[in-house]
C-alpha cells in the first residue's frame, strides 16, 4: 500500500474521487484542526461548531464524489470557503429565528447592542490591545517578527514568505509557530490581556 500521508492534497483528492476512501481520511486528518478552529473562533459555540464542521466535510465529500471539484492546488482555501458559507448560513438562520414582532409595544427591536456604534470604551480598549500587540511583536526575535508581520499585516501566504525570505515553507511555519508561542509567553509574563473579557 502506498503511503498516502506523503501525497499532496490534490493527489489525495484525485485518489478519493477514484474510490480510495483512505485518501479522504488523510485529507480530513490534515485539515480538521485548522477548519474546526476557524469555525469555533467565529461561532463561539462548540456544539454548533461541531455541526458546521461535520456539514463542511459532508459537502466536500458530496462535491468530490460528484466530480465537481475544480480548485486544483487550492484544497485548504476551498474547504475553508465551504465552512465560511455554512457559517454565514448559520448566522442567517439564527437571525431569522430571533426576529421579533414589532407589534409588541414593550419591545424596542432597535435597542440592541449589535446595532449600536462602538462606544468610546470599546474604541479605547481596542486601541490599547493594538498597542500591546505591537509592543509584544517588537519584543520577538527578528526572524519570528519578520514572518509574523508578513503573514498578518501583509497577508502573504507561507509559500510567498518562504520565497521572499529564501527558506523552506516548513521553516517559515516553524518561525510562525514559535512567534505565536513567544507572544503568548510574553503576554503572560507582562500580564497583558489581548482579548476583551
Can you characterise this structure?
- The structure is a single chain.
- With 197 residues, the protein is mainly alpha-helical.
- It folds into 2 domains: 4-97, Orthogonal Bundle (Rna Polymerase Sigma Factor, Chain: A), CATH 1.10.1740; 116-189, Winged helix-like DNA-binding domain superfamily/Winged helix DNA-binding domain (Arc Repressor Mutant, subunit A, Orthogonal Bundle).
- The protein is built from 8 helices and no strands.
- It has helices at residues 9-17, 21-43, 46-65, 75-97, 120-138, 142-152, 158-165, 169-189.
- The radius of gyration is 22 Å and the shape is flat.
- The model has no long low-confidence stretch (mean pLDDT 81).
Keywords:
197 residues; mainly alpha; Rna Polymerase Sigma Factor, Chain: A; Arc Repressor Mutant, subunit A
H/E element sequence: HHHHHHHH
Looking at CATH, the homologous superfamily of the largest domain is: RNA polymerase sigma factor, region 2, helix turn helix motif
- What would CATH call the class of the largest domain? Mainly Alpha
Q: Distance N terminus to C terminus?
A: 51 Å
The description of the largest β-sheet is: none
Which consecutive residue ranges, at least 5 long each, have pLDDT under 50? none
Amino acid at each position: 500500500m502506498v503511503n498516502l500521508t506523503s501525497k499532496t492534497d490534490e493527489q489525495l483528492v484525485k485518489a478519493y474521487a477514484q474510490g480510495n476512501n483512505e485518501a479522504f481520511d488523510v485529507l480530513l486528518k490534515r485539515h480538521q484542526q485548522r477548519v474546526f478552529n476557524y469555525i469555533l473562533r467565529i461561532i463561539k459555540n462548540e456544539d454548533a461548531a461541531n455541526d458546521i464542521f461535520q456539514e463542511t466535510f459532508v459537502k466536500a465529500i458530496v462535491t468530490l464524489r460528484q466530480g465537481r471539484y475544480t480548485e486544483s492546488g487550492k484544497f485548504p482555501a476551498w474547504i475553508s470557503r465551504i465552512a465560511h458559507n455554512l457559517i454565514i448560513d448559520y448566522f442567517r438562520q439564527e437571525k431569522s429565528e430571533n426576529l421579533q414582532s414589532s407589534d409588541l409595544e414593550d419591545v424596542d427591536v432597535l435597542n440592541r447592542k449589535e446595532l449600536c456604534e462602538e462606544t468610546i470604551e470599546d474604541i479605547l480598549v481596542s486601541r490599547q490591545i493594538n498597542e500591546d500587540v505591537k509592543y509584544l511583536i517588537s519584543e520577538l526575535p527578528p526572524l519570528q517578527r519578520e514572518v509574523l508581520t508578513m503573514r498578518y499585516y501583509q497577508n502573504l501566504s507561507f509559500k510567498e514568505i518562504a520565497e521572499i525570505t529564501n527558506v523552506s515553507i516548513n521553516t517559515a511555519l516553524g518561525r510562525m509557530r514559535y512567534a505565536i508561542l513567544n507572544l503568548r509567553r510574553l503576554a503572560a509574563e507582562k500580564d497583558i490581556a489581548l482579548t476583551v473579557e
